[in-house]
Design a protein that fits this description.
The strands form eight sheets. Strands 8, 10, 11, 13, 18, 19, 20 and 23 form an eight-stranded antiparallel β-sheet that branches. An eight-stranded antiparallel β-sheet has the order 9-12-22-14-15-16-17-21. Strands 24-25-30-29-28 form a five-stranded antiparallel β-sheet, with no helix packed on it. The relative contact order is 0.18. It is mainly beta. The chain is about 5% helix and about 40% strand.
C-alpha cells in the first residue's frame, strides 16, 4: 500500500548544475546512487500529478516513479545530498516541501473510522501539558469551562495531552443528525472506542453521564454510558429497538486510565451478544436482549462527553455530569474483532503493522525511540560515523553509552539511548524495530549547512523522511509550522527515481 508524505528541504533548479560523472549510467541531469538515478523537479504539483509526471520518463526498460526512501542507505544519500545543495543556496531559494513516496512491503487493510477525535489540544504533539491552551481538536467546551483542564494522556497513545472535564463542565463533540452516531440504527453494526479516567473524588453519586448521543432518553435514538445506583449502564436506542446492559461498577477501573470499547450488532438481532462491552481489551459484558416495537425519534443528535444531552429541559450540569478525563474517541461503522479491540487498547492505535512511532532527540546525548507492533517489538540502536562511512551497532550497554528499554504495554516498547561526552558525536542515530521477520527504521541525521536537528514531535516541523514505514525528522531552523496540516490539497516540487540498470 502506498501513501504520501512531505520532504521539506532546500532543493532548487541548481541541483541540475551539480557535477555528474561522464561514466554515470544515469541519463543527463539524473544523479546516481546505488542502482537508481534521481532527479529533482522544481514544478509545484499535487502529489497525484507529481506521480503522473514522473511516469513520462523511462530508462533501461523501467518507468520512473516518485523517489522512495526504504533503507538507511537511501535515507543517508538523500539527506547528505540535500546538505550539499543547501550550503550553496541563499535562503530565498529554499522551497518548503518536496514530494517523496512511501512504499510499504505488505498490504495493510486500514480500518477507517467514521469519527476520530484525539480530544487533545489542537497541537496534540506537545512535550508537556504545562501551559498548553485548551483548544478544541474536534470539540467545544461546555458548562463551567473553568473546570476543564489539560492533563497527560495515556502513555500508550501518540499524543501527550488530553482533556479533563470536572462535574459541571462537559465536551460537545458536535451535532450528528442523520448519522449512526446519533441514530445507531442507520448502521448495521458499530464499534465505539474511548479512553476514560473516571474521577470519583467529587460528584460520584446519583446519575453521572460520561457518553451520550441521545440514548439516555427513552424518547430519542442514540447511545449512553453512565453510572446509576452503583451500576454502570449502557443504553442504545434505534428507531425500532432498545438495547441495554447493566453491570456492577467493580468491573470498571476508577481513578485510572482504561480503554472502553462497545460493539453493537444491530443487523442481526438474534445473534448472542448483540451488545458487547470491552474493558482494556477484555470482554466483560454481553447481551442479546432488547426491546422491540418501540417508536423513538432522533430529537437529540449532539454527542456529549460528561453530561446528559437532554435538551428538553435546562440541564443541571453539577447534578448529571461525571468528572472524567477523556482521550481518543473513535467510532467505526463495522464490528471490530476482539483481537482488533485488544490492539486498540494495547497499541493505542488502529494501525496494526510494525511502526516506529517516535524518534526524539531529547538532547545532543540522549535519544528516545517508541515502537509498536501487536507481537511486541524489539528495539536496536546503531550509529553512523561519517568519517569512516560505517555503521556501529550498539549492544544493550557499552563504552560511552547506556540503553534502557521499557514496555509501555504488551504492544508498545520505548527505548532510551544516552551517550556520554566521551562518545564521538555520530553523524546519524538510527532506531530499528524488529518483530519477527519485519523491521522498520527511523533515523535522525546531524546535517551540515543551514539545517539542524530538532525533536520530531515538539520542535519546528521540517523534513519528514520515511525509512521502511517510519517517519524521520530533519529540521530547518526557524521553520515553525504544523506539517500535518500542510499535507492536504498542497502542491510542491518533487524528486523522481528510476533504476539505472535492469535488476
Amino acid at each position: 500500500m502506498s501513501s504520501w508524505f512531505f520532504l521539506t528541504v532546500a532543493l532548487v533548479s541548481a541541483l541540475f548544475g551539480l557535477s555528474q560523472s561522464l561514466c554515470s549510467p544515469c541519463p543527463f541531469q539524473w544523479m546516481e546512487n546505488g542502482n537508481y538515478c534521481y532527479r529533482y523537479f522544481p514544478q509545484n504539483l499535487s502529489y497525484d500529478k507529481a506521480e503522473m509526471f514522473c511516469k513520462q520518463f523511462s530508462h533501461t526498460g523501467h518507468v520512473a516513479e516518485l523517489a522512495t526512501v526504504s533503507t538507511l542507505g537511501e535515507l543517508t544519500f538523500i539527506v547528505e545530498y540535500m546538505d550539499k545543495i543547501i550550503t550553496s543556496l541563499p535562503s530565498t531559494d529554499i522551497p518548503r516541501r518536496v514530494w517523496l513516496k512511501n512504499t510499504t512491503t505488505e498490504e495493510v487493510i486500514d480500518i477507517i473510522p467514521i469519527l476520530d477525535r484525539t480530544l487533545g489540544p489542537t497541537k496534540s504533539h506537545v512535550s508537556s501539558c504545562d501551559s498548553v491552551p485548551i483548544s478544541g481538536d474536534g470539540f467545544q467546551l461546555g458548562g463551567n469551562t473553568s473546570l476543564i483542564k489539560i492533563v497527560p494522556a495515556p502513555d500508550v497513545l501518540d499524543h501527550a495531552s488530553t482533556v479533563y472535564a470536572k462535574t459541571g463542565s462537559f465536551l460537545n463533540i458536535g451535532d450528528f443528525k442523520d448519522t449512526c452516531i446519533s441514530d445507531p440504527g442507520l448502521c448495521e453494526s458499530m464499534t465505539w472506542s474511548l479512553w476514560l479516567k473516571i474521577d470519583t473524588s467529587s460528584g460520584f453519586t446519583g446519575i453521572r453521564y460520561y457518553i451520550t448521543s441521545g440514548g439516555q432518553s427513552s424518547k430519542s435514538r442514540g447511545i449512553a454510558f453512565y453510572i446509576s445506583s452503583n451500576m454502570f449502564k449502557y443504553l442504545i436506542h434505534t428507531s425500532t429497538r432498545s438495547y441495554r446492559k447493566a453491570y456492577d461498577k467493580s468491573k470498571i477501573p476508577l481513578n485510572k486510565w482504561f480503554h472502553l470499547a462497545l460493539t453493537i450488532d444491530i443487523g442481526n438481532v438474534t445473534v448472542d451478544g448483540a451488545l458487547q462491552l470491552f474493558v482494556d481489551g477484555v470482554l466483560i459484558a454481553s447481551t442479546s436482549s432488547s426491546s422491540s416495537d418501540i417508536s423513538v425519534s432522533d430529537s437529540l443528535t449532539k454527542l456529549y462527553l460528561g453530561t446528559s444531552n437532554a435538551a428538553i429541559r435546562a440541564i443541571d450540569y453539577t447534578k448529571y455530569g461525571g468528572s472524567a478525563s477523556y482521550s481518543h474517541l473513535t467510532v467505526f461503522d463495522s464490528l471490530l474483532t476482539q483481537q482488533q479491540i485488544h490492539n486498540l487498547y494495547s497499541c493505542g492505535t488502529r494501525d496494526w503493522e510494525l511502526q516506529v512511532r517516535h524518534l526524539i532527540m531529547k538532547s545532543n546525548l540522549e535519544y528516545e525511540c517508541t515502537v509498536s507492533d501487536p507481537s511486541g517489538p524489539i528495539i536496536t540502536w546503531s550509529l553512523y560515523h561519517k568519517q569512516t562511512d560505517s555503521w556501529e551497532n550498539l549492544d544493550t550497554s557499552g563504552d560511552g553509552y547506556t540503553i534502557q528499554s521499557a514496555n509501555v504495554s504488551t504492544c508498545v516498547v520505548r527505548s532510551t539511548l544516552v551517550m556520554s561526552s566521551s562518545q564521538v558525536n555520530p553523524t546519524a542515530v538510527a532506531c530499528t524495530a524488529q518483530a519477527g521477520s519485519n523491521s522498520a527504521t527511523a533515523l535522525i541525521y546531524n546535517g551540515d549547512g543551514m539545517f539542524s536537528l530538532s525533536d520530531q514531535l515538539h520542535g519546528p516541523t521540517g523534513i519528514s523522511l520515511l525509512a521502511e514505514g517510519s517517519l524521520v525528522n530533519y529540521t530547518l531552523n526557524g521553520c515553525q509550522q504544523d506539517g500535518a496540516s500542510m499535507m492536504d490539497n498542497s502542491t510542491s516540487p518533487f524528486i523522481c527515481e528510476i533504476p539505472d540498470k535492469i535488476h
